[in-house]
Amino acid sequence: MRWSKSLIPTTREVPADAEIISHQLLVRAGFIRRVSAGIYDWLPLGWKCLTKANSIIREEMNAIGALEIHLPALLPAEWWRQTGRYADYGPLLFKVKDRRNGEMILGPTHEECVTELVRAYITSHRQLPITLYQIQGKFRDEARPRNGLLRVREFFMKDAYSFHTSLESLSQTYQDMFQAYVKIFRRCGVPAIPVEAESGPIGGDASHEFICPCDAGEDVIVRAEDGHYSANLERAAHGNSNERRFSDAPKMPQVPLTEIQTPDATSIESVCQLLKIVPQKMIKTMVYMRTDGAEKRFVVACVRGDHEVNENKLRRLVGPVELADETLARQHGFAIGYVGPHVANTTPVTLVIDADALMVTDATTGANKAYWHVTNFSFAAHIDVAKAGEPLVGDIRLAAPGDLSPTGSPLTFSKGIELGHVFKLGTKYTDALGAVFADEKQVNHSMIMGCYGIGPGRILVGAIETSHDADGMIWPINIAPYEVVITPVKYEGQAASAADDLYHRLRHAGIDVILDDRDQRPGVKFKDADLIGIPLRIVVGDKGLAAGQVEMKLRTEKSPRLIPLSSAGDAVVEMVQNLRSQTDA
């Protein structure tokens, strides 16, 4: 490609809405262009990078026997109602109606659609296992699109789905997919740490995320210092608490609770400041509502004042819940902002206590009436099991600094970007949609599913966030828009002829090369090449040609080296092959 024939609208100005470096550089280098909040045009350079990442993904998917398909983006809403995800995704769904008033959605993911496809054609155990995948646009109506390609409303995803007759078969494919992901991220030149993860609205009982560590990330990686444990914050366990029951609560004298008026102090911080106490001596009480079934059953979750409720852990303990609507909760007698655990003595609730909170004595907590708190609280003394029932006790909080891992090593916390996610789904979707297979005795069983996603756009974000400098991007060779840029100091005369000759030789050798044939000052060309982040630059100038030489400079090096013009083609090919091998090994 000749630069003059391409569309590369570089700019020196930083976009006003760009907070993270990848967003800034992708716009400045002319890779993407904002159309609307969370919606972007992909320009030629950006599309080349995305296509290269997708090619690596396809190669590794095909290598483990996955079959590529293409499913529609416009999906019947009824499928999503059948699986329950119409409600689970809620406002994230883009919803439209056709001319017959039939409701459709723009697919944020495709479990329902692919299950319907497999249900139509797979009927026997002899046809399983099978893995299908696609690379396709997805749509999610994010409340706050931000950070360029990191949080968008339209994006690309590689989503794969496997179908099995047994858990053993699913586990084998899960492991194959896990290893394929390791290869994909290594070949793309992007660091990715596999961590235990929650399944979220996808469902399933086992999952891992692949997270690229960087400060721009929205995920938190929790790792043991000894390297033997890693998880995302939503999943992370901690080893501070052993298995505890309510009977393990410290036995305290029956000291009456003391009420203290705390006007407008509805947060842990404000109460601590007012009463001059530390958060570790407070009990934070949150009110949730069960979301399954017609019965309105409240769940009251208690953690120590310096901890936060982990709703995923809470759900694993008591079933599906969501934070209770304040208006509804007040109608049922809850003094929101001033709720204490002993509300269970007078109101029908499921009381759940974090194992660490259980051990706090002489605590301060809500008084169950507006603008008041109580002191001297302890669970053993002030929860009447005869009235409240025996509370559930378990780990229902987020891991925090100072915690130990399940292996006993201190936990560390860092930010990262989720690049991919693998799930063991089980039969959530096949049960709901009737996807069954007949076994050897012609007895029908629901197929067992796995689900595996990668965000190609996030691979690009991870590459930039972890590899850039003050001048611009530094692309890994395998996903760079071009591997080599040839930059004549002036595109005329002998320099133009030498540059053209080298350009054709490199193209013939299979090198992805761009020739900067613009009538621009050398400084402009050099700055653009650095901004775009092309791994290798060859400078052709009259002064060097007079000595039979050209300059070769890696994007990662400060100074160029002189090489003979006569062997420049071979030298560049060797350098590119070496760079490729470093990620493909």
Briefly summarize what is shown.
The chain has 585 residues and is α+β, with helices and mostly antiparallel strands.
Give the uncertain stretches in residue-range form.
Answer: none
How many DSSP E strands? 31
Terminal residue distance: 29 Å
* Biggest beta-sheet profile: 9 strands, mixed
Q: In the CATH hierarchy, what is the class of the largest domain?
A: Alpha Beta
Task: Give the radius of gyration.
Answer: 29 Å
Helicity, in percent? 25-40%
- The coarse silhouette is globular
Structure description:
This protein is α+β, with helices and mostly antiparallel strands. Helix content is 29%, strand content 28%. β1 and β2 form a beta hairpin. It is globular and about 95 Å long. 44% of the residues are buried. The model has no long low-confidence stretch (mean pLDDT 94).
Task: List the defining traits of the structure above.
single chain; 585 residues; alpha+beta; BirA Bifunctional Protein, domain 2; YbaK protein; Rossmann fold; 3 domains; nine-stranded mixed beta sheet; five-stranded mixed beta sheet; 17 helices; 31 strands
